[in-house]
Amino acid sequence: PVDNGAASSVSRSVPIASLDAGAYFERSMGWGGKDYVQTLEPIATDGERSTQDVELASTPVRAVVTTPGNIGSIKLERQPKQLLAPDEILVDVRAVGLNFKDVVVATAMLGDEAWENGMSGATIGMDCAGVVLAVGANVHDFAVGDEVVGLAPACAGNRAVAHRRHLVKKPAAVSFTDAAAVPTAYVTAGIALERLARLSAG
């Protein structure tokens, strides 16, 4: 189902001892001999949230923040089918790696100027892994059906368009989920060690 309703969240503090075993939480502060954490509870702003069934095999969708600053407003939206530029590749996304950049986008921690000249802009998703669905006229090193991993803007959905230089073929022994967790971390390490620290052999 694709959620096309609106929602927000309210926060409350509860003692850690009252949380169910195995619940995920982040310890925040102690008060009166007890440790407290923040929890989020979804609330509907317009009654029951509505859903709509779509055929994902033929309908491109992606996650978008409909109310900047409200992480509870993320929903899936239909996207128009996109014509590929000569150097672009269309990917059937099988896994997406989310990182702190996506939290920053969803919570509107930075203004629009922070995303100028960036690869992905203020969108959700940049790391992904999947299967090639189509290639542009200048793409000769990838073919339909290839399993790939790399960077693509706004890839938190079932389709992504990436420049051919931003993808590599996924090793067969690596799952889509594991592969999608690699790109940003790998690029960050490469820039830090090779360009900034100028690390080289020997």
Can you give a write-up of this model?
This protein is mainly beta. It has 3 helices and 12 strands, in the order E-E-E-E-E-E-E-E-H-E-E-E-E-H-H. It has a 5-stranded antiparallel beta sheet with strand order 11-8-9-10-12. Strand 3 and strand 4 form a beta hairpin. The longest helix is centred in the last third of the chain and has 14 residues. The N and C termini lie far apart (55 Å).
Strand content of the residues, in percent? 35-45%
Q: How much helical structure, as a percent, in the residues?
A: 10-25%
- Class from helix and strand fractions: mainly beta
The coarse silhouette is globular
Strand order of the largest sheet: 11-8-9-10-12
| Major sheet | 5 strands, antiparallel
Distance between the termini: 55 Å
